[in-house]
Amino acid sequence: MSLDATPSIARRGLVDRVLRRGPLEAAATTIIAAGVVMLMQPLSLTLYSWSFATTLFGTVMFTIVSKVRE
Amino acid sequence: MNELSASSRITYRAVMVRPGAARRIRGLSDRTLAWLFITPTIVLLLAINIFPLLWTIYLSFTNYRANRANVPTIWLGADWYQSILTDPDIWAAMQVTAHFVIWTVVIETVLGFGLAYLIDKKFRGHGMWTTIILLPMMLSPAVVGNFWTFLYQPQIGLFNYVIAFFTGREASSFQMLGDVTLSPWAIVIVDAWMWTPYVMLICLAGLRSIPDYLYEAAEVDRASKWRQFWSITLPMALPFIMLAVLFRGIENFKMFDMVNLLTGGGPGSTTEVASITLKRAAFESWRTGYSSAFAIILFVTVFGLANIYVKALNKVKSR
To answer: Which residue of B has its CA nearest to A60?
Structure first.
């Protein structure tokens, strides 16, 4: 039986880098802000129509990722 | 027994009278006691916060009307949401809200930070001036609404006379609350007058938290006052400014009382912010299901902004 730990370490490193609270919270915050801007902009009715879905997605994402470890 | 205090004696007697009950209370763990104390609060919170929220979410999917409570309700799915999110009138109300929110936040932040910067200089009588500046914030919005309605009167209002004095126009030649162009600015002026002191207070806290040694080091490095402002004052006060911006943004997004008192959404629908539209749908047209869906849309927006606000607050706390 051979033990090769390198791929799993690399995978875990990537996961650790991406699945951290800071960047995920920043992404969720950006989505919420985008949703609010879409809700109140005067340019496109289509953007307005999708604003609620965007804000809701951002808010749910923020609630979930705020439970992720630092 | 003689050396026991009065309260100890009472406790002693209570234990003696009901040993079973006393043992039961003594047997409670810290966790159980904690639950015992917080249960009334949780029940109250569920009754007045969580239940109405869940009930509103349920109603937003139905055709329920509060003035026809006996009519059987029909499940409509997301129809109201689709209707609101494709309605140009609601979209217009959102733009009126955006105008109000953006301008009030910009004016309040600039003036508030400017005032905080001046007050922080500790000139003679700065305490008295701080109190005077804070006065509008302490008034009720109902009082402010009525007060400014009189100030904006074209015939007798002081505001028109001040503008007339500076511009040379006739005082009664314009109506701040009756004009389509001026009325959105009228509510912006009142909100800025009332809430600039609040922003000032938050910015002042930020400015007072900057340690003096940073300025001393900058003086040693011969940094100009302008350079000190851009490199020390503004970056250090920025989290506090951000906090004030978010708080005022959230508050003004929900603004109802002052606008309702000043213009009631008029003339036409030029000052009809989202909360006024919501009130009309809920209590004038009695479209409870529709207004519940609208309320949920506004709630999700405010909740999302509140998340950003809490994040900014934690950043300030960690400093």
So the answer is: B304
